[in-house]
Amino acid sequence: MPPKTARIPEPGDNGRAIELLQRHSLTTLVQQELERQIVDGKLAAGTKLNEANIAAELRVSRGPVREAFRALDQSGLVRTEKNRGVFVRQVTLEEAHEIYEVRAALDELIGRLAARRITAQQLARLKDIVKKMHAAARTLDSAAYYPLNIEFHEVLAEASGNAALIENYRRVVNELNLYRREVLARDSKSIPISARNHDDIVKAVAKGDSALAGKLLFDHVIDGRDRLARTLHPETAKGKK
Amino acid sequence: MPPKTARIPEPGDNGRAIELLQRHSLTTLVQQELERQIVDGKLAAGTKLNEANIAAELRVSRGPVREAFRALDQSGLVRTEKNRGVFVRQVTLEEAHEIYEVRAALDELIGRLAARRITAQQLARLKDIVKKMHAAARTLDSAAYYPLNIEFHEVLAEASGNAALIENYRRVVNELNLYRREVLARDSKSIPISARNHDDIVKAVAKGDSALAGKLLFDHVIDGRDRLARTLHPETAKGKK
DNA sequence: CGACAAATGATTGTTGACAATCTACCATAC
DNA sequence: GTATGGTAGATTGTCAACAATCATTTGTCG
């Protein structure tokens, strides 16, 4: 009589690789590739995406490309015009203004939850990132600062322990990248301010002060938005309520 | 050199109807139809969606159906398993718990913004809805109360004046409908509490008290979540922090 | 010379067919 | 009787061809 030979493939198996290959269809691969190129800025905002060309480049037929377009449309990275094609989404100043508010609300929740749930390991990572941030701030090195900023908020989001929140946060940040990309380097003056903000946020989270961490993050995002807006349009910014 | 003959069709045209027909491709129509059926509950959570069957029912080929699936997948209404098909998404208790928190954060922002920007007309609509709510609450008529509740929050969202926020709000609420649908009628006891909440919210918005309106809405959503959770799982709820 | 109209080329929208994969059932061996 | 292996049917993944629509150019008329 054979004993229970229920074979559960242990993780670390090569079954891991098999599973990945099985889950990825051409549609998802095309989607990921296009998303990468858009977020990285290799496909500039407003660029027209030609189905046939992309299909030829990626060596697939138009079907998977079209399906990937629908997914990207829904996630806000491209906009579709019937019989005209799909274009990398242009985010106007007004839209970005609105999206920043949404991000602020999400980040506020991230702060509140992270203050309660963050692990010692995650907190150590944050402190390490902040340390590097101050180094970059001293030389106003925006090229070094920018990825640190991304990473800081990403770690914080993960520390919230809320998968739905993380997902929404990432989508919104992706949309904002479409707006922010072109104007990154211009805003080096505000780096020291931003770096100090992160200091305070880490302290609040470390203390477990949920309300304070939330409020600091909300204000941090809104301040960043307004600094960026002033950098882009110095004349119109001051009168804005 | 292209002569700038930018022809702008004036609004109020009959071009309005034409424009709608021009914008809707089969893919978008299929997407809207499926979304309607899912949110209405005609397609129960977990249902397998057969490409060929749906294509036959809607008298289109499989292509547009597949594209609609990708869009619905990205918006969280269905989940896709490679070579197995797409299924109406099942939202577990834990996921719903998380999504409710995201909704609470979005609603908090809605409250803050609406308190500043709401028009007299919108405020009148809210008061009218609340009046009807109290009528439904007196008889614990959950069938009448539910659509009023939807409408109340929809009007409030529009009053926020933030298109990106409204969009995110609707997506999250759509996801929650997948969870809430099955258990609506059970929770009639908490209707009076919910109705009083709406009273307070309207007052805060009318006063223009941004912070209070936000806090009331946040708590309102979280309270609703917890009441629903207690109704579903009376035993596990009390120990929850 | 400029404006309108028709035709041409390019691109998207849709469809049906083929290939790959999974599910269910049945036969066979122990 | 249970378990293993294989086969048949159904379903999804991908592709290429056809139809519809849009953009551009060319030609004609005023």
Task: Give a structural overview.
Two copies of one chain form a homodimer. Chain A has 241 residues and is mostly helical. Chain A has eleven helices and three strands. Chain A has a three-stranded antiparallel beta sheet. In chain A, helix 2 crosses helix 4 (62-74) and helix 5 (93-117) packs antiparallel against helix 8 (163-180). The first copy, chain A, is globular. Residues 1-15 and 237-241 of chain A have low confidence and may be disordered. Chain A binds chain B through residues 22-25, 27, 63, 66-68, 70-71, 73-75, 82-83, 95, 98-99, 101-102, 104-106, 108-109, 113, 162-165, 168, 172, and chain B through 22-25, 27, 63, 66-68, 70-71, 73-75, 82-83, 95, 98-99, 101-102, 104-106, 108-109, 113, 162-165, 168, 172, 175. Chain A binds a DNA duplex (30 and 30 nucleotides) through helix 4.
Secondary-structure topology with pairs:
Two copies of one chain form a homodimer.
Chain A: H1 15-23, H2 26-40, E1 48-49, H3 51-58, H4 62-74, E2 78-81, E3 85-88, H5 93-117, H6 120-138, H7 142-159, H8 163-180, H9 191-207, H10 210-232, H11 234-237
Antiparallel strand pairs in A: 1-3, 2-3
Helix pairs in contact in A: 2-4, 3-4, 5-7, 5-8, 5-9, 5-10, 6-7, 6-9, 9-10
Chain A binds a DNA duplex (30 and 30 nucleotides) through residues 2, 25-27, 50-52, 60-64, 66, 82-85.
